Amino acid sequence: MDDKDSFLHLARPLGPAQVGAQPVTAPLSVTIQPQAIFSILDHSLRRNPDQDRVIGTLLGTRSEDGTEVEIRNCYAVPHTETAEQVEVDMEFQKTMLSLHLRANPREVLVGWYATSAELNTFSALIQNFYGQQGDGTWPHPAVHLTVSTEPGREIEARTYISAPIGVTAERADESCLFIPVPYEIKYGEADKSGLELIAAAKDSEDRSVGVMGDVESLERAIEQVLEMLARVSNYVNEVIDEEASPSNALGQFLMNALSLAPKVDPADIERDFNNHIQDVLVVSYLANTIRTQIDLSNRLATAALTLGPESTGGATGGEGGQKDRQDRRGDRNKGRQQQNRSAES
Amino acid sequence: MPAPANTLLIEGSFDELADELAVYIDNLKKAQGDEGSAVQSDVSKFLQEGKKDEALKSLVGASSVLNAAPEKELIAAYNLLIHISRQSENVDMFLNRICRNLSKPITSSPANGSGLALSVLSTVFNIVPPSDDSRYHVLFAILEVIRSSANFESLKPQLQQLDSWLVQWDMDEEEQRKLYLAISEVAEEAGDSDSAYDYLIRGLRTIPTNEASGNEARPLALRALKAALVHPSHFDFQDLTALDAVQALRKSDETYFELLELFTSDVLEDYNDFKDEHDGWIEQEGLDGAVLNRKMRLLTLASLAAHAHQTRTLPYAQIAKALQIPSEDVEMWVIDVIRAGLIEGKLSQLNQTFLIHRCTYRVFGEAQWREVAGRLDMWRSSLEAVLGVIRREKQQFIVESASGKPEKPKDVGIVD
Fold this sequence. Notes:
heterodimer; A: 3 domains; 10 helices; 16% strand; disordered C terminus; B: mainly alpha; 64% helix; initiation factor (chain A); eIF3f (chain A)
């Protein structure tokens, strides 16, 4: 998805002026959150077999001046396309939008997506629908995201905004110029490790993969760093042996990075590691103790109800060493006995 | 899969669209008091005769009037013109003309004119196939507009693709140089001296070795050299010395080259000797002596720190002596050098020493590469040790839990 087409984006077309503000032509950039791409791909998988592409609405946030758009969320919109005409369920779109905005008041309508890289005159119509005044993104330009979903090919995403074309009103309604705009798919650290885990399952037969524990992931991370170090030192050795041409900038960069590299003694590490393991064990011991206590107190409370006051002492006898707990239990049992008595009298 | 070739989506035949545009142009001309305009009749005559190119010629010829169109309609009208021009065989010729029109000021919108022109020009740029060298000329038109509107900021991030473009367009070195220098000038005018210097150097790199001492290369090399010397935050002169064109200055402009060598590797003392030897030369060449002095001091301190990297400490007295400054100013200078990014460290007022964490090597030679290799090895060996510890612990944990040894506090179990 990362091979970028070569295009220039210097200025967006002049939008309608907001009250009290100068219309701006500052260029625009789009950020896409991976979960939006995922639901688009999911939608594309569930489409009717006779449909070439499916469309949906993009939701997200827009910076105050409108130059940065972030696509965070999306939902599918049913539409039918034939050779002559295109039909979009506008009622559905409106209802869904208002429901979504109620659930996520911070998100706004930013545009629409299609699951094919192709642009045609229907795209122009739909684009104008999303960019219109009233229900559309007006006064901001609507963003059109195309995600190619041809099986067996790389998935490619592209983002566009539009500019009018044509000198008469009727022409302008049915046509538009799509202007490619730069986009970036943004992964957070957490997203990335989650995705890596999911992707690890793609080569296995049963399509499943276990979640790694802390120690395993630490081990894996160290192995990765070692691999990278091997690559770098390979280069450095080549430079020293005068096989590769030295780059001063690179050398300086490495020097700076390495001045912070820790020098650790294996014995220290072993000691620290063992200390840490002990800490972890203590924490897990305490966590287990607390869990047991909670469980215990739950059972005691219900035991008093089911067995009556006399038998509670026998049920829990021998366990404990927790004085305050027993005290509390005693209090509670007292209260229970009083209650029973008052019920009898 | 390549990007869709066509981003201009409009229905209607060539004839219809050309006719509509001709009517529009006529109306515009009339609004400007040119009653005799008859583009439409010309166009319809050519169309009836089936001469598409002739019709387009008269349309494009009259299109300069579009610059006076209301700002809301301007982009739409230009887009239509581009769309119909593309249907001709001689699309380059028409696009060329359109670019020239757009380089002229847009009369209807003084505030947003450059934005509008850039918007249409980037459309022209984008519809030309990526490997077509017409893009090169369009880029020049764009640079022209950028220059007049001082809008280098919006072009700058897009120039990252410049190298791949130049490869795609298959430009020779002279054309590349022309483009680099044009960008450098635009950046200079926009006050972005970093980029201006960067593109100047790239332009210099395109000069082949055998022309390095030529008449064309010399002024450029001198310009780059001066820019680098007086630039407040440029401290790495090795990229300059590596250039053939700059090496050629060794013969033609000895004093400049001597100065460059001083700044590449020498310290303040040598610089002062140079000043004594060439008294008044710096002022005579229009270089700012104060800036050079300051820069030399910063560099000297960086060199000092690099020499002291074994002990990692520098006494104040040594700094004061090398920089020829009073000892109470030492801390200010050290802070300046840290701010310039040449060194990192801590000042210890109590011990009157500077503790170096990291320093920049002005000359990055073999010794430095060896040090990098040594540090890499050290890091790797310590990481391997860590990995060994982790593996052993894991193994131990598995063995222990398999043998049923009460590792986890299971014995607190619930009595039911």
